[in-house]
From TrEMBL:
Annotated Gene Ontology cellular component terms: cytosol
Molecular-function annotations in GO: DNA binding; DNA-binding transcription factor activity
Pfam families named in the record: cNMP_binding, HTH_Crp_2
Residues annotated as domain Cyclic nucleotide-binding: 34-83
Domain of life of the source: Bacteria
Name of the molecule in the record: Helix-turn-helix domain-containing protein
CDD domains recorded: CAP_ED, HTH_CRP
Lineage: Bacteria, Pseudomonadati, Pseudomonadota, Alphaproteobacteria, Hyphomicrobiales
């Protein structure tokens, strides 16, 4: 992904201009860049020269294990900032699930601004703290929850990005493939499909086409996923599943995305 030609933010200089400087202010000075699905904005091990803010689209964040397997550590959505916690190298690859629009800012320049702006420094710490919280939640997801609970948690997490109210049905588009879900949840595609089938048969979810998801009973789905009544993830409850029906799994497998590429388009 080539560097964008962006103006130097000299107007941020001085205590007055930096008093309430925010991440939104910083990235607003940069041009938009577009990255097509299947292409990467940076690769694991690359020099961490830039920080990125996603404006549109979804990115998958993953690492490649020594045996060649892919482990997805998270997804980036509009408003998310990538690269704040890095020092010398990127820890993971950031690859577009859909066409992505984003803005970049030099990592060193951002650190220098934050050193002189307490508000910006605090906001950066908040982003890093949220990343740590998400990492802890994934540890609970992978270490304590059953396959069905993991899938239910994943669907609910994505549904609540478009609807904060769990008391009513939620409809949303899920751009990730079943392979993405499997690599994020630490499952096989077959196990993900079986779990989705069980949730469908229980009347909790339904699917339309490749990507549209209906959560018919979000509150009940949350309880099944092991979340408490306040919606706090990570509160594990014992769920009895002996009565769940076992039928042949639906054919839900998606095709793999095209091979990743480094090339992205840029526009003003």
């Amino acid at each position: 992904m080539a560097y964008s030609a962006s103006p130097i933010i000299d107007h941020f200089a001085g205590p007055i201009g930096q008093a309430r400087l925010s991440l939104e202010d910083v990235f607003a000075t940069r041009v938009s860049e577009f990255c097509h699905a299947g292409h990467s904005i940076f690769w694991e091990g690359d020099v961490a020269s830039d920080t990125f803010r996603v404006s549109e689209g979804v990115l998958r964040l993953y690492r490649i294990l020594p045996d060649g397997r892919r482990a997805i550590t998270g997804f980036a959505f509009p408003g998310d900032v990538l690269g704040l916690a890095f020092h010398d190298r990127y820890f993971y690859t950031a690859e577009a699930v859909t066409t992505v629009r984003l803005r970049r800012f030099p990592h060193g320049r951002l650190q220098a601004l934050a050193a002189d702006c307490p508000h910006l420094h605090y906001e950066i710490l908040q982003v890093i703290a949220n990343e740590l919280g998400a990492a802890q939640e994934q540890m609970v997801l992978l270490g304590q929850k059953s396959a069905e609970e993991r899938v239910a948690s994943f669907l609910l997490m994505n549904g609540l990005r478009v609807a904060k109210d769990r008391s009513a049905p939620i409809v949303f588009d899920l751009p990730m493939t079943r392979l993405d879900m499997a690599d994020y949840l630490g499952l096989t595609i077959e196990t993900v499909c079986r779990a989705v089938t069980k949730l469908r048969q229980a009347g909790l979810v339904s699917l339309e086409g490749r990507h549209k998801v209906f959560l018919h009973k979000p509150d009940e789905l949350a309880r099944f996923a092991g979340q408490d009544d306040s919606g706090c993830p990570g509160m594990i409850k014992v769920t009895h599943q002996a009565s769940w029906p076992r039928h042949a799994m639906a054919n839900l497998n998606d095709e793999l995305e095209p091979a990743a590429s480094r090339t992205c388009d840029h526009s003003h």
